[in-house]
Design a protein that fits this description.
The chain is an alpha/beta fold. Helices cover 39% and strands 11% of the residues.
Length: 334
């Protein structure tokens, strides 16, 4: 059976306390000269928290931002424009718990001739218990993991993320927002992979970090496959550190009150937590680099299991198999 690093939400939250005191070696590398002028950037889950802060900061630095989310359209986009002092933000509907919505979103970008320079896969959910989606999968599995498999493949096969443009000096960048809580999670359990299994709060917390390990393993395999014949895209992973967001909005009331107190005292505001993501997204330091991992502004290694080629290959094959079981028009880069 799979398991994550934590199964207690309070312990998981307090673990982020020590991150505030770790040396951030690369923090000074991000300056106001790091700008997104002429770049089109997709941010998923952009209506609140880290995603919203990223949209504002990237637009403030000159980027054209596509805010992909399922709620608060268009009011959040208007708020972001005011904060960024820029009108170069647009909102597009995307519900990652619905396969049809993922296809419609990608087809809309292709139809409108959008070419993404930078894709930041930020959206995620933390439901307090198992929840079945329309396609029969657990919501956390679909939103936090499989939807990212679908998005990256559909965007690349359609050319919205153009991984075959050898004439471009700026190669596409794809950034997976993860968590350092993935460290120490179990090997991927393929007996339960993609199956709907009932669970409660403790398992939900464990699944969050476990699915981050699964996601990071996929990102590493995607990097291998995209760049097997030479560098075509930077596909990297980052943990922004503990963020004071609304991620626990569905937790039971008492637990929500406790966690929000911890978040307020210990965690960083989204506007501060977004800075290392901005750095990875645009800094020249990441030109020609792929399969890198940052924990805030600290370069480090992910869990060792993530780098095992056989694990990555097996995950890719199993992910495509599960995708094709629920989606007859699945399309991969292979």
């Amino acid at each position: 059976m799979s398991h994550g690093r934590f199964d207690n939400p309070v312990v998981a939250s307090l673990a982020g306390f020590w991150d505030r005191f770790r040396k951030q070696e690369l923090a000074s590398r991000l300056t106001e000269n790091d700008r997104f002028d002429g770049k089109t950037v997709l941010v998923t889950g952009a209506n609140s928290g880290l995603g919203f802060a990223l949209a504002v900061e990237i637009a403030r630095r000159g980027g054209h931002v596509i805010m992909a989310c399922r709620r608060q359209i268009p009011e959040v986009g208007e708020k972001a424009k005011k904060l960024a002092h820029s009108d170069r933000l647009e909102m597009r509907f995307l519900d990652l718990s619905k396969i049809n919505s993922i296809h419609e979103f990608c087809e809309g970008l292709k139809k409108d001739g959008v070419r993404l320079d930078i894709t930041i896969l930020n959206a995620g959910v933390t439901p307090p218990k198992a929840r079945k989606t329309d396609s029969g999968q657990d919501e956390m599995f679909l939103v936090n993991y499989l939807s990212n498999v679908m998005l990256t493949n559909l965007l690349m096969t359609s050319g919205v993320i153009n991984i075959n443009n050898n004439n471009s000096l700026f190669k596409p960048r794809v950034i997976f927002i993860s968590s350092d809580s993935h460290q120490g999670s179990s090997y991927i359990d393929y007996d339960e992979f993609g199956r709907y299994l009932d669970y409660g709060v403790s398992k939900a917390i464990a699944n969050y970090s476990y699915f981050k390990l699964v996601l990071n393993t996929y990102a590493t395999e995607l990097s291998r496959r995209v760049n097997k014949d030479g560098f075509k895209a930077g596909i990297n992973v980052i943990c922004p550190g503990p963020v004071n967001s609304n991620i626990v909005k569905e937790a039971p009331l008492l637990l929500r009150i406790i966690l929000k107190g911890i978040f307020t005292i210990i965690f960083k505001s989204p506007s501060k937590a977004c800075k290392p993501v901005v750095y990875m997204a645009i800094s020249p330091d990441f030109e020609g680099r792929t399969n890198e991992y940052l924990h805030m502004f600290r370069p480090k290694k992910m869990d060792f299991k993530i780098y095992i080629p056989e694990e990555g290959s097996k995950l890719w094959e199993r992910s495509v198999e599960v995708w094709k079981q629920v989606d007859p028009v699945a399309s991969t880069i292979d």
